[in-house]
Amino acid sequence: MSHDARLAELKIVLPEALAPVANYVPYQISGNLLYVSGQISNGPDGLIRGKLGADMDVAAGAQAARACGLALLAQARAALGSLDRVARVVKLTGFVNSTPDFGDQPEVVNGCSDLMVEVFGDAGRHARAAVSAPALPRGVALEIEAIFEVA
């Protein structure tokens, strides 16, 4: 089954690929790799703001990470024309806006990782970093960037 068909089967509708808000490009292709710039947690009602360990729990953080994942897929589709050109998800790097004592960054970023496996199957399994950040742009809960291998 194609990746685009898998999205439809899962009833996942990707958001519009947003334009950058600063001096960078949303994605870059080099050789057979697609680098997607960090996508911040943004949902249908706007930015998903919060700090894990203060005013946001792990479940809400995982949902914010999933929103980042949807934005990453939207950028990948904008770059490639179709997600069917994605051969595999190579790596995700997740930045979690969290308090110094919060230690569940991996569980939070799983919201994005689980989405990649849901959509791409084994090709969605990836290397990953999930790190704490004392603050993120616009007060969002998460920012996640991705590297995809292109077929």
Automatic annotation (TrEMBL):
Pfam families per record: YjgF_endoribonc
Residue ranges constituting the Endoribonuclease L-PSP/chorismate mutase-like domain according to the UniProt record: 5-138
InterPro entries documented for this protein: Endoribo_LPSP/chorism_mut-like, RutC-like_sf
Entry superkingdom: Bacteria
Listed name of the protein: RidA family protein
